Amino acid sequence: MGDMNEQEGQLVEFLAEMQEDEALELAKRMLLEEGAAPLRVLELCRNAMDIVGKRFEEGEYFLPELVLAGEMLETIGAIAKPLIKHAPGEEPKKLGKVLIGTVHGDLHDIGKNIVAFMLDINGFEVRDIGIDVPVNSFIDEINTWQPDVVGLSGFLTLAFDSMKETIAAFEQQGMRGKFKVMIGGGQIDETVRAYTGADAFGVNAVEAVNLCKAWMGEAA
Ligand code: B12
């Protein structure tokens, strides 16, 4: 989980223990008063989500805890994101178009939203078409918007099949060669990439940005 100072450990604990008020108060203080790095705070949230996920798997937590965890993450994300956007440095030129969505059957979008946001602030034009996206919606958007990269997100194991199906449909439509496909979310690795037929996978938003930059011929 990496090195954490006492305050950072406290935030992870509040989040993992479902102490909503304490967690939000501490996150606000760190971000708005103490100038903590927003990306660091989001990383701490991710660490806490790993603990929550494990407790859910082990039967200690149930759906209400997952929902609350998701809500806490969204609240903190909403505070952290504008702080990233207002970091010093000029607006970069638009590097390329990225279409992103969560594949059908899967409703998880917090990770996808972070990816979309990071691509945006790194100079990509991003079109986010939401969650539980049917194959045909991807195809329609690709036809009308002509993206350079298509990002498929999914946190459930069953999303791997949806990704495979979506990419196979791109093939059938004869459009597969016109853009790059990256996948991410959940436990994605090279085996899953090969299974789905994607060009690449990324385990976090920084990797997503680096993939897109490399594809657009920009140094990462
Ligand atoms: C919050 C949460 C929810 C919330 C989602 C809220 C929302 N708006 O997204 C709610 C309560 C709705 C939910 C529901 C369910 N969930 Co849930 N959920 C989680 C939890 C706790 C956190 C997920 C999260 O948002 N993490 C935070 C983000 C920031 O994570 P991240 O991985 O760091 O994100 C990065 C990467 O994924 C990557 N990335 C993401 N997308 C993309 C795309 C591309 C192209 C690239 C390159 C990179 C990339 O970049 C992100 C940013 O750096 C996880 C546990 C866990 N450890 O992940 C379970 C988890 C994903 N859920 C799980 C389950 C089982 C469910 C339910 C089936 C529960 C149920 N019985 O109903 C339902 C499914 C609903 C559905 N059909 O989708 C399981 C999945 C198991 C599996 N292998 O299939 C998990 C792993 C929990 C567990 N350990 O059992 N869940």
Total domains = 2
Q: Uncertain segments of ≥5 residues (pLDDT<50)?
A: none
- Determine the N-to-C terminus distance: 25 Å
- Fourth-level CATH superfamily of the largest domain: Cobalamin-binding domain
Helix/strand-derived class?
Answer: alpha/beta
User: CATH class of the largest domain, anyone?
Assistant: Alpha Beta
Q: Major β-sheet, in short?
A: 5 strands, parallel
Q: Indicate the CATH architecture of the largest domain.
A: 3-Layer(aba) Sandwich
Number of helices: 9
Number of strands: 5
Strand content: 5-15%
Your description of this structure?
The protein has 220 residues and is of the alpha/beta class. It folds into two domains: 78 residues, Orthogonal Bundle (Methyltransferase, Methionine Synthase (B12-binding Domains), Chain A, domain 1), CATH 1.10.1240.10; 119 residues, 3-Layer(aba) Sandwich (Rossmann fold), CATH 3.40.50.280. Helices cover 56% and strands 10% of the residues. The protein has a five-stranded parallel sheet with strand order 2-1-3-4-5, sandwiched between helices. Helix 8 links the parallel strand 4 and strand 5. The longest helix is centred in the middle third of the chain and has 23 residues. The protein is globular, with a radius of gyration of 18 Å. 37% of the residues are buried. The protein binds cobalamin.
